[in-house]
Amino acid sequence: MSTATESRSVDVCIIGGGMIGLAVAAELVRRGREVCVLEATVGSADAAARTAAGMLAPVSEADLSHPELTRLSLASAAIYEQWAQDIAARSGLDTGYEATGTLIVALHRDHMAEIEHLRAFQHDRGLAPEPVTRREIRELEPALANAIGGIRVPGDRQIDPRRLLAALRETVTRAGSTVREGVRVTAIHSDGPSNLVEFEEQGATQTMHAQLVVLAAGAWSGQVAASGLALPMRPVKGQALRLRGERLLHHVVRTPDVYLVPRTDGELVVGATMEENGFDRDSRAGDVLDLLVEATRALPGVRELTLMECNIGFRPALRDHLPAIGEARPGLMVATGHFRDGVLLAPITARLLGDLICDGRSDPLLAAFAPGRFQAVEARA
User: Fold this and answer.
1) Distance between CA 261 and CA 272 in Å, rounded?
2) Strand, helix or coil for residue 166
3) Predicted pLDDT of residue 60
4) Please, what is the angle between helix 19-30 and helix 67-91, to 10°?
């Protein structure tokens, strides 16, 4: 392999061109910073967001075990519409943002017990979901079958992650910053007052100086972490299906076993598996069958839709299933480990990291997500 030294220096180098990396880049260019995004694939092909359904559901997906994550999610949801409108205006591209609301439905008594437990948790925290009867569900969504009750969350929203990725990328490049694809970062070194980023591009090993580095490489963040930075990251594989045909639903619909996300263009996203199989890229017939069986059980009309895609993504999961957002050391910021919530948390991650980078202001919301929280554990081990 040949070696070439790149003389260019940049203000901010962002490692990772998925949802979080591009959201942070868009925020920083808005604040006048020069950014270079280094992305390992072409078109962010490995980004978990390309498989994600794009549900913006801080209430219906409230995490019973992590109230601090629920607070962060609610804060992100509160700014999402304005943020999506801003990205659409700056890029000239539609992001697919929709105010659909969510129906969580039970198909049998065991489901109903799970949903009642979730509703009690939500109610105790002032999240106020609306209980719905079998009859009300039929009125709201006539195409659903077998639902015996559930809850409705009218404040939930959705966005098309693929459209959003394209809009974020366009926002960054329109501002005069750079997104370089097909670049594999191999190391980050502290180099006096700046950082030296090593990467491979077109068969050559190159380097770039950056005053600040933001590590946002999703499930691959642990592989490119700077020396001495403890990031116990693992990929959690997820498979989702994309079908197309007549629009059957007006809400996002969830059961305890499957979710169904309708788009205005006739696409229906069905998901998703949760697999601890490393970076296994195989799609197995049994997983596809399980998703289709559960989808058809709730929505019989799925049988008439055309199966367009079976997608695989890798959710970035840290040991405690919470993201790492903030300063790891002077000159190195981290924004990774968002697990199942990268699309939802993109605006708040970008805004809070922008405040930290540009204004030196650390929001109390970030306290639970400090990247250094694993450092102390590793030192004691």
Assistant:
1) 11
2) helix
3) 82
4) 60
C-alpha torsion 132→136→139→143, nearest 10: 60
CATH class of the domain comprising 102-154+235-318: alpha beta
Which residue blocks in the chain are alpha helix, DSSP H?
A: 19-30, 67-91, 109-124, 134-140, 161-174, 221-224, 285-298, 342-354, 373-380
Q: Map out the domains of the chain as residue ranges.
A: 2-56+163-232+319-380, 102-154+235-318
Q: Are 297 and 310 in contact (CB under 8 A)?
A: no
Query: Mean pLDDT throughout 257-270?
Result: 96
Among the ranges given (38-52, 112-126, 138-152, 320-334), the one the predictor scored with the smallest mean pLDDT = 112-126
**Secondary-structure breakdown of the chain: helix, strand, coil percentages, each rounded to the nearest 5:** 35, 30, 35
Nearest to 297 by CA among 106, 139, 153: 106
Res 377: pLDDT:
53
- Note the pTM of the prediction, 2 decimals: 0.94
Reply yes or no on whether the pLDDT at 44 is more than 90. Answer: no
Question: Measured between alpha carbons, how far is 85 from 93 in angstroms, rounded to an integer?
Answer: 10
The pLDDT assigned to 1 comes to 47
CB atoms inside a 10 Å sphere around CB 136: 16
- How many H-runs (helices) and E-runs (strands) does the chain carry? 9, 19
State yes or no: pLDDT of 177 exceeds 90: yes
Q: What is the rounded CA–CA span in Å between residue 301 and residue 258?
A: 15
pLDDT at 226 over 70: no
335: left (phi over 0), alpha (psi -120 to 50) or beta: beta
CA distance 21 to 361: 20
The residues that bridge with 255 in the sheet, in sequence order, are 258
Out of 10-14, 117-121, 346-350, pick the least confident: 117-121
Q: What is the CATH number of domain 2-56+163-232+319-380?
A: 3.50.50.60
